[in-house]
Amino acid sequence: MTRHCHRCGWEWKFTDLPGRSETCPQCRADLRVCVNCNFYDRRAAHQCRDGRAEPVEEKDRANFCEYFDFAKRSWVGPEGNTREDAARAALRSLLGD
Predict the structure, then answer these.
(1) How much is the pTM?
(2) Which of 39, 76, 81, 95 is the most exposed place for a label (fewest CB within 10 A)?
(3) What average pLDDT does the segment 65-77 reach?
(4) Beta carbons of 4 and 14 less than 8 angstroms apart
């Protein structure tokens, strides 16, 4: 289990949490973002399991959340969610795209 960039998978090897303005050295994605947080959950209200946090609209952009906890997990690339990809493909075929 590692801490990594949500976009490209670059591993965060530092002991401290990233600051609000820190970005991934490989893809320049913001690191202190909801999708990198341990409390991020697509099924929860406002997609956050921490009830104290203010709602954030853009989950992949840097924000000022005080409760950010960089998640440790196994890196699964963008192709990792085949169920979601299959649902998107079915929707595209239904709408004729």
Answers:
(1) 0.73
(2) 95
(3) 88
(4) no
